[in-house]
Write a structure and sequence with these properties.
It is a single chain. The protein has 9 helices and no strands. The chain has helices at about 5-35, 40-50, 50-80, 85-115, 125-155, 155-165, 170-195, 200-210, 215-220. α1 (about 5-35) packs across α9 (about 215-220) and α4 (about 85-115) packs antiparallel against α6 (about 155-165).
Length: about 240
């Protein structure tokens, strides 16, 4: 039996919420516990003392990316009847581009873990050199996330436009998503190209990122409302 728009929206919202709950573990919680800004030795000591937590962070980056593929597919199915071109853009930017970049970028953290593993083949380096090398990989991982976040921002534009045009989700949620998308882009480009602007952007960026959050709760709780809510999803 075909799902209705409301049922498909709630299914997409459930997957989106799983992504939204798990991703911050790898992107925020674990780095906050283990990485000491500008201090390679302290960071390396923390990782060696809490290797299992660092590995949890790696898993918590990979799992949301796998879930993210299914989120994009579920949203494509939900919105393709609204505008197929925008729905395809959502699918491409939300999974086909950003997911490979993010998953490949996790190799930097895996490399940092290998450098700190104490393997015999690394004995040609002294400890400060190993700590510095591991910290370099961690910094590369952070910059790789900035590159991936360009597409985390870009995908919110077709997504937001689809919400605005849908007729079964409040338009304000679409506008909030595009504000969040612009914030991702501004922060990424500042970090990579104009680092002197990062402190200024960070002062206003954090609350704007939360523009992506309301759509998760709306999809999960209400799914869709209005005369189109009980319409079968188009094939």
């Amino acid at each position: 039996m075909a799902r209705t728009i409301k049922q498909q929206a709630r299914f997409a919202g459930l997957l989106y919420m799983v992504l939204g709950v798990t991703a911050p573990i790898g992107l925020l919680y674990v780095p906050g516990k283990l990485i000491v800004s500008g201090d390679a030795t302290a960071t390396a000591d923390r990782i060696r003392a809490s290797e299992s937590l660092f590995r949890l962070g790696i898993a918590a980056e990979l799992i949301p990316q796998v879930v993210g593929i299914f989120v994009a597919l579920a949203l494509y199915r939900l919105f393709k009847g609204v505008n197929k071109t925008l729905a395809r853009q959502l699918l491409i930017f939300g999974s086909l581009v950003s997911v490979p970049i993010t998953m490949l970028n996790v190799l930097n953290n895996v490399a940092a873990l290998q450098v700190l593993s104490g393997a015999a083949y690394l004995s040609v380096f002294d400890q400060p050199q190993l700590d510095a090398l591991a910290f370099l990989f961690i910094r590369l991982h952070s910059l790789g996330l900035d590159i991936a976040s360009i597409f985390w921002g870009v995908w919110l534009f077709p997504f937001g436009m689809l919400v605005i045009r849908s007729g079964f989700i409040p338009r304000i949620l679409g506008y909030l998503m595009m504000v969040a998308g612009a914030t991702y882009l501004a922060n990424a480009f500042a970090t990579l190209s104009l680092p002197q602007l990062v402190p200024l952007i960070e002062k206003v960026a954090m609350p704007l990122y939360f523009g992506e959050v309301p759509i998760m709760f709306w999809l999960l709780i209400w799914g869709a409302r209005g005369p189109l809510a009980d319409t079968p999803v188009s094939e």
